[in-house]
Design a protein that fits this description.
The chain has 91 residues and is of the alpha+beta class. The two termini are 25 Å apart. It is built from 2 helices and 4 strands, in the order βββαβα. 27% of the residues lie in helices and 34% in strands. Strand 2 and strand 3 form a beta hairpin.
């Protein structure tokens, strides 16, 4: 089973994201991206998660587990929470 790990971060240098795809045979595909726009931490978390999902699509992954430290993203992916925040609705 494929696995995706994601994390969004904000520091003095700006917003950045990390994602890691892990194949069933333990091949690691790391991704780091510096976001060139101002955003909230929640938006950075969504961007990180989406980066992992986009990469999985490129590798033609049909099923995977997704892990991250954002309760908001995880609960929304599972369909348990909704948002009315206009910045998050597109995600």
């Amino acid at each position: 089973m494929w696995t995706s790990y994601f994390d969004g971060a904000f520091n003095a240098l700006g917003h950045g994201i990390r994602a890691l795809l892990l194949s069933p045979d333990n091949q690691r595909i790391p991704m780091t991206v510096r976001l060139c726009f101002s955003c909230t931490n929640n938006v950075a978390e969504y961007e990180a998660c989406a980066t992992g999902i986009r990469a999985a699509i490129e590798f033609r992954v049909r099923s995977m587990n997704i892990f991250g430290d954002s309760a908001l993203v995880i609960h929304q992916l599972n369909g348990e929470w909704e948002t009315r925040d206009q910045k998050l609705i597109p995600y």
